[in-house]
């Protein structure tokens, strides 16, 4: 990722530049540097690995949407077999992810 500075202040990368009676659309980094901009290159931060909770939810979402889960929870007393299947699946996913 590049950060652009002009007069020691951070600025957005210019979309155009007028220098030497010419307009550059878009200007190259070299043209910006010659016009007095300072460009600093910074490494992209490494992505953080997903948490246990994020991994569990992602795997549950492969089978059940949020709406599906809410319906199963709401109907847990009237459809106990479906709820038990859902709950067993979730507990299995949690156990597998804890092992990782």
> Into how many domains do the coordinates divide?
2
For the terminal residues, how far apart are their CA atoms? Answer: 33 Å
Within the largest sheet, what's the order of strands?
Answer: 2-1-5
Rg computed from alpha carbons, rounded to a whole number of angstroms? 27 Å
Order of helices and strands: EEEEHEHHH
Q: Can you summarize the main beta sheet? A: 3 strands, antiparallel
Summed over residues and divided by their number, the pLDDT gives a mean of: 93
Uncertain residue ranges: none
Q: Structural class, please?
A: alpha+beta
Shape: rod-shaped
Number of helices: 4
What is the subunit organization of this protein?
single chain
Number of strands: 5
Summarize the amount of helix as a percent range: 40-55%
State which percent range the strand residues make up: 15-25%
Describe this structure in words.
This protein is of the alpha+beta class and about 100 residues long. It has 2 domains: about 1-40, no CATH class; about 50-100. About 45% of the residues lie in helices and about 20% in strands. The protein has helices at about 30-35, 50-60, 65-75, 80-100, and strands at about 1-5, 10, 15-20, 20-25, 35-40. A 3-stranded antiparallel beta sheet has the order 2-1-5. A two-stranded antiparallel sheet has the order 3-4. Helix 2 (about 50-60) crosses helix 4.
């Amino acid at each position: 990722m590049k950060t652009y500075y002009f007069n020691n202040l951070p600025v957005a990368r210019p979309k155009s530049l007028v220098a030497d009676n010419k307009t550059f659309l878009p200007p190259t980094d070299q043209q910006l540097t010659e016009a007095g901009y300072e460009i600093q290159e910074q490494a992209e931060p490494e992505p953080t690995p997903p948490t246990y909770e994020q991994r569990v939810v992602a795997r549950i979402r492969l089978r059940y949407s949020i709406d599906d889960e809410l319906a199963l929870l709401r109907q847990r007393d009237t459809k106990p077999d479906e709820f038990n299947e859902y709950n067993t699946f979730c507990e299995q996913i949690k156990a597998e992810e804890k092992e990782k």
